[in-house]
């Protein structure tokens, strides 16, 4: 394990860790507010919360809330690993195997959270229809993918690439230590 003493990077990692924890608290607060207020758009003093649901789920807003909480939990797990990564950076472990693992799990959470946010609404519609079998209307299932989902998937792939580069850099640093 190679520790790098870079005071500026360590300080920025600490502040970034604080920002990530604040983001995590904001996600939890938003989910609590949506649970309290229900699905739909809610705005007060410049802060807007929006949980839009399909027409099929209007009778069952709890399913939409469950979807929001599940996706949030996936992203919170990734943010937690990012907090742990920043803690390693604060200790000077920039290219360790643990740092690479944390970054990979964060990237995986971005990808899986994005996939879950695209697939869960369709699954919810099927569940809602199964819970009300006497509904004569046909079931239309669509997978909603918007530009933010594409961007999150690309950013997740970018973080996988950065993790691979970090792993290679750590291996090169270890090899150089053995040579000297």
Provide a descriptive summary of the structure in words.
A two-stranded antiparallel sheet has the order 1-2. With 180 residues, it is mainly alpha-helical. The model has no long low-confidence stretch (mean pLDDT 82). Helix content is 72%, strand content 6%. The protein has one domain. The chain is elongated, with a radius of gyration of 21 Å.
In short:
The protein has 180 residues and is mainly alpha-helical. It has helices spanning 7-37, 61-90, 97-131, 147-179; strands spanning 40-44, 47-51.
Features:
two-stranded antiparallel ribbon, mainly alpha, 180 residues, elongated, single chain
How many domain units?
Answer: 1
Shape descriptor = elongated
Distinct helical segment count: 4
Order of helices and strands: HEEHHH
Low-confidence stretches: none
Number of strands: 2
Helix content: over 70%
Distance between the termini: 15 Å
Give Rg in angstroms.
Answer: 21 Å
Largest sheet at a glance?
Answer: 2 strands, antiparallel
* Strand content range: 5-15%
What is the overall pLDDT average?
82
Write the layout of secondary structure elements.
Elements (H helix, E strand, L loop, with lengths): L6 H31 L2 E5 L2 E5 L9 H30 L6 H35 L15 H33 L1
Antiparallel strand pairs: 1-2
């Amino acid at each position: 394990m190679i520790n790098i003493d870079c005071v500026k990077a360590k300080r920025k990692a600490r502040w970034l860790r604080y920002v990530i924890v604040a983001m995590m608290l904001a996600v939890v607060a938003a989910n609590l507010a949506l649970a309290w207020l229900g699905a739909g758009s809610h705005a007060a003093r410049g802060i807007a919360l929006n949980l839009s649901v399909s027409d099929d789920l209007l009778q069952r807003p709890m399913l939409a809330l469950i979807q929001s909480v599940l996706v949030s939990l996936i992203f919170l797990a990734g943010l937690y690993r990012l907090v742990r990564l920043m803690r390693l950076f604060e200790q000077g472990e920039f290219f360790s195997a643990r740092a690479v693992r944390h970054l990979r799990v964060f990237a995986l959470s971005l990808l899986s959270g994005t996939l879950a946010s695209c697939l869960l609404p369709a699954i919810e519609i099927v569940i809602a229809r199964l819970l009300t079998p006497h509904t004569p209307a046909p079931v239309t299932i669509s997978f909603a993918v918007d530009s933010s989902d594409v961007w999150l998937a690309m950013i997740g792939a970018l973080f996988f690439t950065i993790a691979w580069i970090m792993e290679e850099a750590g291996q090169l640093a270890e090899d150089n230590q053995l040579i000297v």
